[in-house]
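Two proteins, back to back. First:
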Amino acid sequence: MAKVLVATGSGIRSFARDGEADAELVGHPISAISQEFGSLGLAVVDHQHIWQRNYAGEWSIVADAGIPLQSIVGAGATIFAGAMNEAAVLRVSPSGEVERLASFDHVPGREQWLAIGLPLGVRGLTVTADGRVIFAAVHVGGIPFSIDRGDSWLPTIPVMFDVHEVRAHPSRPHLVAAACAVGLCVSQDHGQTWRTFSDGLEITNSLAVGVLEDEVLFSIQDGPFAKRSQIWRWKLGSDHLEQVRDGLPEWLDGKVDSNWITTGKDQAAILDGGGNLWLSQSGSRGWECIAKGLPYSSGLLLL
């Protein structure tokens, strides 16, 4: 049975269709949770501590980053983490050694990055299915990528597309999707080129994205303080977008923020700004609200 972990300011809560299970890391604020570390899981605990979850659901500390973090991802035995209040990426070795990547501090075009609304920060990190390419979503700084485990970085998407989240396909290494202010952006060549999908959208501003095997889900809302959101999908190979319903209301409460769409095991879960947690039956269909009144979350993980 699918289980959704919801990272909150006081621990991780666990939900399935039959109700809430035992909480994890109770009393600890969780500022990031990984969607891409198999069934193990990674989390940023107490703002700057990196923890790892084993198959039994037990957590143990890996490293102290020394600075506040807001994103994290595993690439093999190496962990990458993104800073919250500055555009920095840390690399954590299997032994727990933490290194700030000077290469990321000197990405070509970095002088064009803008702190709009929030401080410059790395909102999201993702790794391709083959583990070869790492992408970082910088607000507002585009999507730098690395093909050598962070030793060097290059820019990809235009900075003014205003990227909010980036996710790699679970099995196709060449495909990456991003939620941007201009709509859904998709690359099918490891980030070398991007196509923007926005036809049919009355609003293009997207904050969250999730990638299933044969479709990409993304949210749209009328700004960072939106009172309502919609979920749309792009089917791989298609030229058009369609709104996701089949159990979801036409408008969800509040915004669907970055890291509030998660996918796994041919299912998806969504958290909306009203604290409602939605779980699909299969792919992006058969939605059911499995929890209500949840507090603000830093992210979801579907096991």
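And the second protein:
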Amino acid sequence: MNRIWRYLSVFATIMILIVVLMGALVTNTGSQAGCGSSWPLCNGEMIPTEAQKHTIIEVSHRYVTGITGIAVVIQAVWVWFKWRSKETRILAVSSVFFLVLQALLGAAAVIWSQSSYVLALHFGISLLSFASVLLITIVVFEKTYWKTGRISFDLSKGVKWNFVLLGIYTYILVYSGAFVRHTDSSLGCTDFPRCNGEWIPPIVSRAGIQYLHRVLALILVIWLIGTLIYLLKKHKDIPLLSIGLLIAIIFVFLQALSGIFIIQTNMMLVFLLLHAFFVTCFFGILVGLTMVTLRKHTK
């Protein structure tokens, strides 16, 4: 029976990742209005009769989200009653809450026009939904498969707070990236590393929005590398933490590389989707590391 629940958890995690990427596909292909202003129906129909590209993309996103929602709710209910710990119950509630919130924000964007500030929240909420499901999956494997059981480390408050602040800062960075896209600022800078031939472009402009996102990303890279160096020096006895952070940094560099290619290829769709994929993987790893560092260490 535990094997079935592990399969379900992996399925839910993969599906929520697909939902995030399909949301990026909807945004980057301009398919938000593929079903008109109708929700949950598509142009007033359950199955649209007109198979236009934007309609297919939008309605497919809705169907996949619905299937994913069923899997996430089943997973959440099971872990709620299976393990009555505070951690699992918080994660169970979070996974359902953020998935529903994500769907409601998407519905609101269809039915009513939304500002760029609100639209940029959608991707960030999607990441929180993915992270919640991923963390539940980690807990499921800890309790039913891994012989090591519950993962925890003996760390100082400073290290714990560092990971918490890294997570918060990353979320701000993700929001800035989504804001770049929803304000059509992806090509505000047409070169790299400079911006339109300048090191500091006018801040109140599309170039300024793009430039601010770059600066925030650079700060994150420096912060992550500094954290990794500290862990390698002070916590050589915890290789899992350093290896996890190294993998996270690799995803950050891949995300930056895909961002450069977005500019160089004039926003080719494959690089836009890779950009969303890499940041989702990075965020998931970082949140997973944050969870295990915050746990009370038990020998």
